[in-house]
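Tokens in:
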């Protein structure tokens, strides 16, 4: 609670306990008195509702988005407040990039969050919708969807090269799962490509600040190398 007058207090969190105490006709209840401003009060109330409500993955993503917008906080700050990891928060927010039809299926519980994250690997919204229909009709597992998405990606990359000789690319469910885990670990898109004799791992970053964040996770001791010849502002885009 917070004190709003000489003998009056305003409830911040714990509405269910307060109602239970009234039903039990208790005259006194233990409480923590906290000094807080209106903005902090609203944030605490929203966070309590987020914890209390049984939200589906899409509702949770929209709630995160509202908190980020209303309070201008970072993914790290939000993750710290709700007791989740930054990749969990970021991966949940990514669900909002799905096509409207797929979002409806996630909201209805027809598709799981795992299926939805796998569908994010399909850039075309119509392809997303078609694959979502297959998931429902055939009862596909998340792993099966990941394998399908990998095959779709390899076919789309191979099409422009059809006229000339090319080296074969190994398509492996294991490599796809590795790329997914690395993407979750570094909170960015990671691609793992394997040819006949050699391969490569591509870690994408949005700007210099994002690159510093990834380096802080990948190789903290080498982060100082970024200061050599690079601008101070976060304006660079690219891949590592």
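Residues out:
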């Amino acid at each position: 609670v917070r004190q709003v007058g000489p003998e009056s207090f305003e409830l911040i969190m714990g509405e269910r306990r307060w109602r239970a105490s009234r039903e039990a006709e208790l005259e006194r209840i233990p409480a923590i008195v906290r000094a807080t401003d209106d903005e902090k009060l609203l944030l605490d109330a929203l966070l309590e509702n987020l914890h209390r409500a049984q939200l589906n993955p899409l509702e949770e993503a929209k709630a995160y988005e509202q908190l980020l917008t209303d309070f201008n906080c970072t993914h790290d700050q939000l993750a710290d407040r709700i007791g989740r990891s930054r990749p969990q928060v970021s991966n949940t927010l990514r669900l909002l990039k799905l096509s409207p039809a797929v979002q409806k299926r996630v909201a209805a519980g027809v598709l799981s969050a795992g299926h939805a994250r796998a569908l994010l690997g399909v850039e075309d919204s119509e392809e997303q919708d078609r694959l979502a229909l297959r998931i429902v009709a055939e009862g596909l597992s998340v792993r099966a969807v990941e394998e399908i998405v990998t095959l779709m990606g390899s076919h789309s990359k191979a099409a422009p090269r059809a006229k000339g000789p090319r080296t074969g690319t190994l398509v492996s469910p294991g490599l796809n799962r590795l790329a997914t885990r690395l993407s979750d670990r570094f909170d960015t898109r990671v691609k793992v490509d394997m040819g006949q004799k050699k391969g490569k791992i591509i870690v994408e970053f949005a700007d210099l600040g994002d690159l510093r964040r990834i380096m802080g996770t990948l190789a903290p001791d080498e982060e100082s190398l970024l200061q050599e010849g690079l601008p101070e502002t976060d304006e660079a885009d690219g891949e590592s």
